[in-house]
Design goal:
3-stranded mixed sheet; 427 residues; Porin; 45% strand; 14-stranded antiparallel β-barrel
């Protein structure tokens, strides 16, 4: 097999070998654990046991604001991109509505061009207590070329995935809101190429999100302080498969819980501290051994395959095989805690005009080992805004190096001249 930096060329040693290799290689590309480089089979005596799912692209932070703060957003102040983080925030947004386009590079250090994420999102508030919203996410995996043994190009494949969703959110009280949305997921890794296996097809799934959001304020020596908390359960949906006889893979159902506190020095300056806890509600792989006589797999630690989607979701909080301790015992609780990802970020704002941000994201070494700093800035002029973020991996030669995101947005019906939320601070 020959490779080039701008595309991958597959030589057909045999029809079946090439087809199988294509599918495996593409699935590796989109798997979440390729985002980290851990060259150890065991860490502190415990085996790597990262959770893998289908369509991990739905968990990628799409926007230039939250990604600049370590991928936090479930309880940050509402903005046009709340659809991804917590749709329940929309009723508290100051503008009447808004629309934004986000673009993110992805895995540029793999040396493959055109792996990127585009995200179009918008919302509208028909009244002061409710909002409707929608978004479209498109993930391109570049271009891959099939060639014959003579180097003749047989086919060009441009795999892609997308989601389309719509949501509704509403204030339940002056300070509390809830939101729900439905999502359609489509994943096409072979683009119906004649050189792909005959019995493969695009994977599809139907999913839902649910979120709640609370915000209020208190005074600290005549200065107003906004505090908020949020919870969002996302991508609860049907498993996905690309092959008739392939076991269906779960999509990345996810629980996100976070808080935010924002201190207003005056009507011009503010600073906020934000943090999210994030956990996949997906079965953790068990530890198996092979029966030497029958060749069957025998479960040693953990739980077997769940019988339903809902069993897989609720058992994900206690199904880990357990982190191996020094005395040889295993701690299920400790491994489950290792599956919790942490993001924290800070944001300084000057009126509506300018904001700067920084953050950090942490994932345990046995669960993927993504660790990176991020920073970003935003500029707001009248109804237009632009936000940018850049990522700095902790590890050298990480596939996540050179990742950046940019957002362009337009607000409608936004009160000008005072960036403080009117319904919260102007009582």
């Amino acid at each position: 097999m020959k490779t080039r930096q701008k595309n991958r060329q597959f030589h057909l040693f045999s029809s079946n070998q090439a087809r199988i290799f294509l599918m495996v290689w593409m699935l590796i590309i989109v798997a979440t654990n390729i985002q980290a480089q851990v060259n150890m089979d065991r860490i502190n005596g415990s085996s790597m046991n990262a959770i893998s799912t289908a369509v991990p692209f739905v968990t990628i932070a799409p926007d230039g604001r939250s990604s600049g703060m370590g991928d936090v957003g479930v309880a940050t102040s509402p903005d046009v991109n709340s659809q991804h983080w917590n749709p329940a925030k929309y009723p508290f947004a100051e503008p009447k509505g808004g629309i934004a386009f986000n673009y993110a590079t992805w895995l540029k250090n793999l040396g493959i061009d055109n792996i990127n994420l585009s995200y179009l999102v918008g919302y509208f508030k028909p009244d002061s207590v409710s909002a409707i919203s929608s978004s479209f996410r498109y993930f391109s995996l570049g271009e891959y070329v099939f060639t014959s043994n003579n180097g003749v190009i047989l086919d060009r494949v441009k795999p892609f995935e997308f989601t389309l969703d719509a949501g509704y959110s509403r204030k339940l009280t002056k300070h509390l809101s809830a939101g729900i949305l439905a999502r359609y997921i489509f994943s096409n890794l072979t683009k119906s190429s004649p050189y792909a296996p005959d019995d493969t097809y695009p994977g599809t799934s139907i999913a839902a999100d649910f979120g709640v959001y609370y915000q209020d304020l208190f005074f600290l020596e005549d200065h107003k302080v906004r505090y908020a908390a949020g919870l969002n359960i996302s991508n609860m949906g049907t498993p996905l498969s690309y092959h008739d006889d392939q076991r269906k893979n779960p999509i990345p159902s996810n629980l996100r819980l976070g808080g935010s506190i924002e201190y207003f020095f005056d009507h011009a300056h503010s600073i906020s501290l934000n943090a999210d806890l994030n956990k996949l509600m997906v079965p953790t792989p068990g530890l198996y051994t092979t029966d030497s006589i029958t060749g069957n797999q025998i479960l040693l630690y953990g739980r077997g395959e769940p019988s339903s989607i809902f069993e897989g979701i609720y058992s994900s909080f206690y199904d880990a095989p357990g982190y191996l301790l020094e005395d040889g015992s295993r701690s299920v609780l400790l491994e489950e805690l290792h599956e919790v990802m942490i993001g924290a970020g800070i944001e300084y704002g000057f009126y509506d005009l300018f904001k700067v941000r920084a953050g950090y994201f942490h994932e345990h070494a046995t669960k993927g080992n993504r660790k990176y700093f991020s920073c970003g800035a935003g500029l707001h002029i009248d109804i237009f805004a632009i936000d940018f973020s850049y990522l700095f991996p902790v590890m050298d030669d990480s596939p996540l190096e050179n990742t950046y995101r940019i957002m362009l947005s337009i607000d409608f019906g936004r009160p000008r001249g005072n960036f403080l939320p009117a319904d919260l601070f102007n009582d």
